[in-house]
Structures are given as C-alpha cells and as structure tokens.
Amino acid sequence: MTESLRLGRIAGVSVGINWSVLAIFVLIAVSLAGGRLPEVYPDQSPTAYLVAGFLAAVVFFASLLAHELSHAVVARRNGIEVEGIVLWLFGGVAKMKGDPDAPGPAFRIAAAGPSVSIVLGLLFLGVAAVLDERGAEGLVAESARWLGVINLVLAGFNLLPGAPLDGGRVLRAVLWKISGDKERSWVQAARAGRVVGFVVIGLGVLQFAAFGVGGLWLVLIGWFLVSAARVEEAHAELRGSFGDMTVDRLMTVDPVTVPADVPLQDFLDAWVFRHRFSTFPVTDAHGRLVGLVTVNRIKDVPPDARAHTTVGQLAARLSDVPTAHPSERVVDVIDRLGGAEDRRLLVVDGDRAVGIVSPADVIRVMELNALRSGRGPVPPLGMP
C-alpha cells in the first residue's frame, strides 16, 4: 500500500497515510453524527453530534495506529527492521524488511496488534461505564462505548485464522512450530485466508439478500481477503523458491547503457538490434545514471517521430525507477519489481548500474526450482 502523506515518526517508526483513509474517516464521523449518536441521545445540537463524531473518528484512527505500532515495536525488538506504517482503507500495514527467523518471534509480532486492540477496547468500555455511573456528558460516554466495541470487533476480525490477517500470521507461527516447515506453514495460512475470504463474501451476500446494501461492505472485505491471500500464497512460493538468494545471483549482469541525447531511431539501430536487450539504463553527458528505458516504451512513439525524439525524453526518471543492491535478498525486493511501471528493477552499486531484474528472471528461477522438486507449474506472481 502506497503512502500519500507522511505524518512523521513515532517511536522511531515512519508513519504515513493513504488517501483512502479520508473516505473511511468521513464515513465514520458522518455515521456517528447522523446515526448512532442522535438515536441514543436525541436532544443534542447538530454541532455537538459533528464534534463528537469527528473526535471519535480521530481516536479510532489513533487506535489503528497503536495496533500497527505494536507490530512494529515488537518486530524491532526481535531484530527486524521496519520501513514504516501506512494507514489505509482497510486499516493499516506495518512494512517490515525481512521475516522472523523462528516461530516464537513470528507469533509475538502477529499477536501484538490484536492484543493492543483488546486492551484498548476494554479500556474504552471501562471509561464509558465510569462516565455513565457519574452521569457525565452522554455523547462522550457513547463515543467511548463505540470505541470500545469497535476495537474489540477489530481485534476479533483480525484474529480470524487466515493470512493476511493477524490471526493468519498467528496460525502460520503455530503451524511452523508444529511442522518445522516455514514455507509450507506460510502456504497453509494463505490458503486458510482464502477460505476466510470466501466465507466473508458468502455472509455479505446473505446480508445483502436479507437487509440490502449493507452486505456489500462485507463482500468488498471478503474480496480483499481472497485477493490478498492469493498474493500471500504466491509470496510464500517465492520464499520457497529463492530462500536467501541475493539479487546478484538473479540479475542480468553488466547492462548496456545509452546516452539520453540519442535519437530513438539510432537507439533502435545501434543498441536494441545490436545487443538484443529490452531494457537499458540511461546516462547523461557525464555518464551519470538518469533513468531507464525499455523497448516497450518506443511502441507509443510514431515511426516518423523517432528521428527527433531522444531516449531521455522517453525514459523513466531514475527517481521513478525501483532499485536494489546486489546483496539484498530477492524475497525482500520482489514487491518493488511487481509495483514498477516498466516491471524492471535496476540493480545499483554506488552510482553504477550493475544489473537488471525482470519478471522473466524471477519466473525462470521458479520454473527451474519447480522442475527440480517436481512441484508442478509456477503460481501466478501478480505481475505480467
């Protein structure tokens, strides 16, 4: 999930939000201000409902952040580097570099988030009970009660036994502990996640048939779980295929560079047809890397315009090209390749381009490993 706005750092962890958070924030604030709060306390002003709904939404997202921060903090305590946290439409994601090396740390990292949500849920319900007993402002007590319930619901949902939910990661750690097979436990947890997703979709369809459009939200969540579980399974297969293989063992080495001021027609004649590569790092007049160009990009340029269109005008800027170091593990950089516009990963060492990784490189290794082990066809990678 991509970050649209960086909020800063908390406990040393970068925190950002995706634009989709705004939709859920508005939905929560409006549904509370226009629904639940007026129903329970009908004699308040519209402004009071809006303020209470807005503040409850803010605290809810703070609870989500606490949930993800707990994953990040426990991961760092177990020696795993955390890139950051991104809050988005379906909650949050703590992005980690690497995986736990044993079932125990994997279990602790996975269980941290739901544990915090349970504690927060009970805390908010306790606050609501105290406020009720003391006859405090009803909107405050009701907002605290809603926050308590929603945090417990969040914990319960996240503990469903299927990846990518926290419960799926807990299941994965337990299976790993029982079997001693890390990769197989990941595949099993991902398959359990697909089952959970289809069950949620089924419940949504039933709710839609009985009560109307409310069930569509469950269908959407279930569809997300099924899709995410398929990605988890593909990544588990990747981990099994690559293990600790580093990028330098996968990449196409010594890529041929092309100056940015070369016309496309000359590029085709003197570079593409001569070297038979499909991807070329682009350099400026001083030999510095400035971008990456693929043969596919030329297809969009009319033949009569290729003589006066330069490679630099067509190439992707270096800042938009995902990169990796030769010593990085393949499993740690594969997501960068899948999210790249040109489906290419530029391998750099210092200021030099030393290799290129394409989906074909990844699939080739997976096919060879599948052939060697007799596992059958390669699973889809989620990238063309």
Q: Kindly report the spatial arrangement of strands forming the biggest sheet.
A: 1-2-3-4
| Major β-sheet profile | 4 strands, mixed
Q: Give the percentage of residues in beta strands.
A: 5-15%
Distance between the termini: 19 Å
Oligomer: single chain
Count of discrete alpha- or pi-helical segments spanning 4 or more residues: 12
Q: Which bin fits the share of residues in helices?
A: 55-70%
Number of domains as seen in the coordinates: 2
Mean pLDDT: 86
What are the segments in which pLDDT stays under 50 over at least 5 consecutive residues? Answer: 380-384
Written overview of the protein:
By secondary structure, the protein is of the alpha/beta class. The protein folds into 2 domains: 155 residues, no CATH class; 127 residues, Roll (CBS-domain). It has 12 helices and 12 strands. The strands form 3 sheets. Strands 1-2-3-4 form a 4-stranded mixed beta sheet, with helices on one face. Strands 5-12-11-10 form a 4-stranded mixed beta sheet. Strand 7 and strand 8 form a beta hairpin. Helix 2 packs antiparallel against helix 3 and helix 2 runs parallel beside helix 4.
Secondary-structure map with pairings?
Layout: E1 5-10, E2 13-17, H1 20-40, H2 46-77, E3 81-88, E4 91-97, H3 103-133, H4 138-158, H5 166-179, H6 182-211, H7 215-242, E5 252-253, E6 258-259, H8 264-275, E7 279-283, E8 289-294, H9 295-298, H10 311-314, E9 316-317, E10 323-324, H11 330-338, E11 345-349, E12 352-357, H12 359-373
Parallel strand pairs: 2-3, 6-7, 10-11
Antiparallel strand pairs: 1-2, 3-4, 5-12, 7-8, 8-9, 11-12
